[in-house]
């Protein structure tokens, strides 16, 4: 449970508004990338899509001194759609990093059509080639406490949450499918997301803060998948970024 000697203790960062949150998250990620490049000659990051973290990535591109040719990124999850589809997370990430020449973005889906089964195999192959811990993982959270595409009620959720699962990524079919994005998903598994030096959760609004606080207090990852961050290893730094 959060606060246990066997798990990481999350640190809260509160901001006046969403713009200030974007600045704070961008600064944190810039430090991660710079430190990782200095220590290991490359940075390896997993990034959530969504309205809250995307502005931070745009600011991150303006951070001085980062050799983007030494940064590899992957989305934490992806909708099973072609890369040119408006719902594609990878497309959105690449748009934010358009001013970061050399940045590599690994695909989680087949670019031409997003076919789910082929995409699941592709994602596993891509991630198996980079088994080292992430330098940073950025997560968002939905009002139902899902994170990445770990949706409560999804038939594949138990496998995706199982700490013994050695798969890096897995197909998930939310039930019901969200009307705004009615697609199967490929998501990093909980064990893969938690294999990281730092985890950053970004969210806005009093309602979502309440959901996150209840999730962490319950430690029930099946009902509240975002609670996985409370199970990170004690040497993983977990940061919770929140603004009204």
From TrEMBL:
Its EC number is 3.1.1.31. It comes from the Bacteria. It is an enzyme of class 3 (hydrolase). Gene3D superfamilies: 3.40.50.1360. It catalyses: 6-phospho-D-glucono-1,5-lactone + H2O = 6-phospho-D-gluconate + H(+). Coiled coil: none annotated. InterPro entries: 6-phosphogluconolactonase_DevB, 6PGL, Glc/Gal-6P_isomerase, NagB/RpiA_transferase-like. One of its GO terms (biological process) is pentose-phosphate shunt. Residues 17-232 form the Glucosamine/galactosamine-6-phosphate isomerase domain. Keywords: Hydrolase. Pathway: Carbohydrate degradation; pentose phosphate pathway; D-ribulose 5-phosphate from D-glucose 6-phosphate (oxidative stage): step 2/3. GO terms for molecular function: 6-phosphogluconolactonase activity. Belongs to the glucosamine/galactosamine-6-phosphate isomerase family. 6-phosphogluconolactonase subfamily. Hydrolysis of 6-phosphogluconolactone to 6-phosphogluconate. PANTHER family: 6-PHOSPHOGLUCONOLACTONASE (PTHR11054). This is 6-phosphogluconolactonase. It comes from Cognatilysobacter bugurensis. The gene is pgl.
